[in-house]
Amino acid sequence: MKLTREKIKGFILDLFVGGTDTSAITIEWTLAELINHPKILLKAVQEIDSVVGKNRLVEESDIPNLPYLQAIFKESLRTHPDPNHWENPLEFRPERFLAEDGSAKGQLDVWGQHYQLLPSGSGRRSCPGNSLALLVVQTALAAMIQCFDWKVEGSVDMEEVPRMSLPRANPLICFPVPRLNPIPSL
């Protein structure tokens, strides 16, 4: 196959569209779970406040020091759980990814070595933007948790549409209420 300028542009566009769509869907699902589980959201807020503080915005370099946030992220990627691999698989419980002392469990990752948690594929068929997406999505989610309280009218519908990236059947309608005054700038 000859790579023309148009084909190269098409490949690049596919990468950008694929990356933004799946990242946005992941953030939307995770935020919906957090709104439905206010105690988990509060624990994430407390972790971010204790590690980052309220005077600066969370950064990518903070993510390794936020094990509970990482556990929330992994738990949100654990869609369509197999009861053969997960205890209480329908329960949203980030603690399953933490050691007894609250640190991250090192033995379970999303890189294709543990087939019970494989959100981005494995090997030659894995997502080419996985490294970037994992960091960007967690950082964006951390900033959304750090800077805002999230309010909804009524309950959050958790119905999904059966497609490749499992989008929500209905968009998440929520209202950000600033929790930091002023909100730290970039």
From TrEMBL:
Name assigned to this protein: Cytochrome
CC terms in the record's Gene Ontology section: membrane
Residues involved in heme binding: 127
Cofactor(s) required, per the database record: heme
InterPro entries: Cyt_P450, Cyt_P450_E_grp-I, Cyt_P450_sf
Keywords: Heme, Iron, Membrane, Metal-binding, Monooxygenase, Oxidoreductase, Transmembrane, Transmembrane helix
Family assignment from sequence similarity: Belongs to the cytochrome P450 family.
Subcellular location: Membrane
Membrane topology recorded in Swiss-Prot or TrEMBL: Single-pass membrane protein
SUPFAM superfamilies: Cytochrome P450 (SSF48264)
GO MF annotation list: heme binding; iron ion binding; monooxygenase activity; oxidoreductase activity, acting on paired donors, with incorporation or reduction of molecular oxygen
